[in-house]
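FW: tagging you since you asked about this chain on Friday. Here's the raw sequence from the shared folder, copied in full. Didn't touch anything.
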Amino acid sequence: MTNRRLRADIALCLASIASLPCLAQVNAERAATAQTLERVEITGSAIKRTTSEGPSPVEVITRADIAKTGATTVSELLKSIPAVDIFNQGELAGNSPAGSGTTRIALRGLSDSDVLVLLNGRRLPVNALYDSSGVGAAVNVNMIPLSMIERIEILKDGGSAIYGADAISGVVNFITRRDYQGAEMRGGAGLSSRSDGFEWAAGLAAGTGDYERDGYNAFIGVEYFRRDPILRKDRDITRSVDFRRFGSLDRRSSFAPTGNIVDPNTGALVGMTYKDCPAESFNGVCRYDFNQSLLTGLNGADRIGLMGLAQVKVTSTARAFVDFGFSRSRDHFELHPVPDYFAVPVLNARQAQYQDPANPGVLYIAGRFMQGGPRTTQRTSDMVFIATGMEGSVGRNDWKFAVGRAESRVENHDYNYFDAARWAEATSNGTIDPTVATNSIALVNSLKVSPIRTGLAAVTYLNGQISRPLFALPGGPAMLAVGATIDREALRDTPDPLTQAGAVVGSIQQAAVNAGRTHQGVFSEFALPLLRTLEGQAAVRWDRYPGISQASPKFALKWNALDHVALRGSVSHSFRAPALKQLFGSRDEGAITITDPDLCAKLHVAGACIINAFQVGGANPNLKPEKANTFNLGVVGDVGPVAFTADWWRIQKRDNISSITLSSAIDHGHVAQVGPRYYIYTTLQNIAQAMTEGYDVDARLSLPTPAGSLALRNTTTYYTRMRSRDASDAAWGDFLSTYASPRWRNVLALSLERGRWNANAALRSVAGFYEGDTAINTSGSTRRRVGAYDELDFSVRYSGFRNLEVFAGVRNVFDRMPPFSVTNTSSNAYTQMGFAEMYDARGRFFHAGFSYKIR
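HL: got it, structure written out here
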């Protein structure tokens, strides 16, 4: 029984006429609690403690908290945690070779690769496919079955001194259920108010053996989740990329089925079509509306997860354990038929003025081969892990060690793409007309290729630690923990040979990589109760990568200034070694559309500023680590029915790995023109710096009322700074309140419990932002402002049936649609659905389910 629960019981007793017998019972429970109080290990320290609030800020999301949100996936749950930066593109878009279908965690305004994600305190592999820039080199948390999670602990001031040098912005530790007896079946389903996006989930968990009584426990659980996609055409905000209906621009593609003729000298569209364009599709050039069919506004999902844990009491003070898990996600993505620059024969004298000077009789068009059919990707993603080890105590020493391996495997099978060499020959000599659907089907199929891309990311580790008291201090015994780890990280990404050569029409060039490295780390931590009211923490970690070694210290203090109020602060240093693909990868291409007049002018392109280009990035084996300093000051209070924490934090990051900008690349001549297509070459360098700063506030109120036990909680993350610059001698740019970087996120939750009934309501709110993903500096007031957004969720649970709990709820009760964003529409770097990727357009969503326990 927690102190908070005891206070609630006392309050209920005082409100009762029969308060004396009730208080006697509470005192007995308090005594029992004190006798059974044991030390546990909390994320942020390797030393067990009797209280969860230490010198470092740790947010704990319990199983009960998760149930109140009604979330069925980790991705859905993250929307209820203001500290997490939401950028949900992987769940919204199906056109990213590496990112579609994934969800990654980001904290503190930094990248998802700055967060260390753990499962039961152990590392998980990053997604097997990620860009050579390092984007996406993070754990795909969609592979973690939410129903298996007992709690989630989020360490917010960096954990580099304990867990690894790469925990710059924090640590997220998913902790699974254990010591479970009996069996439990659960299921649930949901449907949007527009009768789409149907999802259902089912699971079974079973455990046997009481660890303390029987000396063993074994637990296994399985979960299946399936979701139907929601198409863009079925929501008003996403149904068309002609956003003139919102007072914006027509963003329909210039790669139209009838073909737009391209000037072979400049690569610009000349405003003339190869074949007749329907009047409703012509706006300067012939347009193709890719949001009106095929593309998803919310991806489908087909996932299964299996996890198990067994533990055996070896002696009265030692246990052996084994954890294992397997999860699989199957995804189906469809894109529109192949768009590209096609070489085609000149049809008339008017077109002849734009023929290729080096190849008379041939001109280039920006076209889309509809007869080729939708480009399709079938993806299978697997995550497998196993860990075994022992832990226990000898005298006053606590010890543990573990050995394990975790793998992420991804395999993409693509269909309806074309061999570039054979395709170019067939279109330029007229054998294939890419503007009609009457070509020989056999001939079309003979030109098709089906590329396969496979990836593997794995981490194999051996680690151990020991802790013990050292000597007496005025506040209690000083504690020491020391530990060491050695791990092997491997990455293998193998695109199809044609894809590696850039010889697939409708796809982009992707580089192969096969690399690995070994890492060693040692750490020590001191817990120092300097006074009865003053606790200190000092830790240092030394990590060694090939060619890189560095120490990461951390110092923290907690002062119990009053009986129920404490102040805390910490400072830590961290560094993150470059991702394997940043060091050992090769060249990657990404399709971009240039609409910036300044860039068009630098490329000497006159007329309409719509340039389709490839941005080419590459690895750099000479990259150095990224480094950061983290500062935290906070207050913790627990006064009567009120509990609260408030923390200020700042992270200063330097030597960030970043590609040079398009503008800088053009200025330095890193540009090539091949036919009508521009190639702009960028490279990875340790050139950038970043600084983020803000506040976390979490306030809770618990009160007995005539209607039942009332709990009110408000959590806020509020940013005061979000700055970066391209080089140490460049001016700082302010990115706070720019696209997808809101100043604050807030969740106000109300819970009422009466008998077997529990009702919950949560208002999730996000601040607005200025359009644009460039720095605001002093010109922010001249930009269009995107409004704030909020959603109200409601759910109710009933547990009055024997062994059965049922629940139902509504997410987004008022059917709110996200506010329109011009930035999202302006580039295919984003989803072009008309709103920032912090949201989705699912709308009102009904859900219900049950949990049945067998004891």
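FW: Residues 1-37 have pLDDT under 50 and may be disordered.
HL: agreed, and The first helix runs from residue 3 to 14.
FW: great, closing this out.
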